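User: Show me an example of a complex going from sequences to structure tokens.

Assistant: Sure. Here are the input components:
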Amino acid sequence: MSRFRWPQGMRCAVFLSINFDAEAFDLRSASEERLFGRFSYGRYGVRAGLPRLMALLERRGIAATVFITASDAQRHPDAVRALHEAGHEIAARGADLTPLPTLGDRQRDALARGRDTLASIIGEPPKGFRAPAGELAPDTLRLLAELGFEYDSSFQDDDHPYVFAATASSRIAEIPRVWALDDSLPFSARHTHARVGRIWREEFDALYREGCLVPLTVHLRGDVGFTRAARIAVLEELLVHMASQSGVTFMTGIELARLALQSGIEPEPDPLLAHKPTLDVTPYRGDLAIKPLA
Amino acid sequence: MTSTTTRTQLPRDIRCAITLGVDFDGPSHEVGRGIAPLGTHSWGRYSGRCGVPRHIEMLERQGVPCTFFVPGYDAQCYPEIVRAIDEAGFEVAAHGYLHEAWEVPEQEETELLRRTDDILRDLIGKPVLGWRSPSGRKTANTMRVLRSLGYIYDSSDKDYDLPYRLRFGSGGNDWIVELPNNTYSLDDFPFYKFSYTPPSEVLAQWKSEFDAIYASDRFLVLCLHPRSGWGSGTPSRTRVLEQFIEYAKEHDGVRFFSSAQFAQWCLEHPQHLEEASIP
């Protein structure tokens, strides 16, 4: 199997992705009438976080990829339009943040609604997709291909983009993420922004050294996101450091996907196929995750 | 009730012994729980695609032995990687079939231990000598079956800082070399899964563990995972592991062993090992 290689002159690509996750996130734990107080961190992301982040990206000349649910997009069409007009890629994240494996027969409609809502706001269908909580149903890759998506960005299994044969005749690129470069986890563990900055710096330096994809995941939210003034200063310092290294290019999801799709690397079968016979006879034990003792 | 003979004491010519163990933990970890290895749950795929090859490359550069504990199912998914581990001169040992992190009835357990042993032995063309429990669960039956398969050691108990002879029955063969490990400090996943600790702080933690052990018991078992998410397979974390190895090497008399090599040494020097009868 031929390995993915960066084009001549490139050492690595930084993929700055933004999980919009505003009210759609808070609505997982509270009803519409209760989006105040502790359930207003998502609104912070749109009112305070987004302008600050857009200003940073403009200042540094970086195009990001924004994954947004239909639910958030309908609430904030002006923000989606502004991001699109500023040159950022708008990508899909389903109808809302309900995990896809729980949707059953309604999954296709949810994916189509996510696509169509964004298309009606920006005038063109989105090409990229990232699943809520990174949870894919067995047929999600196939449905994405059928709905015209060119890539998914939900897996965490490789150092470079690669390609799935989603069906016998369709190809879909995978732009894998990495947990260590997702701001929401250390911030949800209440780490300081200095410490999160240290993690990201160490991760970037090592990925750069080996010429790997650098997939950053930033949230807008005021609780677990990178957009508070003190935090975004750390983020800016990191982005400046990355941009200053030779051979680093910032790329959007669709740019990376087309690079992978046109690279000639061999498409891989849907990963479910090899495991289906075992999964069919294995009970669900997902609640076995190790929890803290106390 | 635990009864012991003499306390384990490593001889002077082993100033400090280190065994590195990489628990392969591929897709078996998710599939065994009935979860498809898609999206976020694809972390185990990283082991076979990137993590293990990166670890092999680093370990070869450092010239130190290492034991890869491989679930049978993962060996079926990535046979060429398991062969590569063996061909590079590293030890392949067993780690469950579907990374069983739940209690398995005795008869089923016996069958799974045998199945994994068959899979690994067929792949590497030599006997498998050791086992580490996936998730740390085991019983006297586990050890009885392992002994019947010719295994010489287990590396799963958490009850001591030194190797010992673990007696689990009264029969002549009812004992096994135990190389105890600790998955709260000398391991990667507690820091990367629970506390999201920067790799440089994990390195500092392991160095501090080493310093204390070098000054006292002189036996260190480090557990690693090559998967993405909470393992050490990614560049930053493999680098930290490499820096730990370099740090240990700077100290006089530090010797790296594969788990099987060290267990073999234990078999040849029973006078140095205490025996514990449990229960």
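The lines above are the inputs; the final block is the predicted structure for all two components together. The interface with chain A takes residues 27, 31-46, 49-50, 73, 77, 98, 101-102, 135, 192-196, 198-200, 228-230, 234-239 of chain B (CB under 8 Å).
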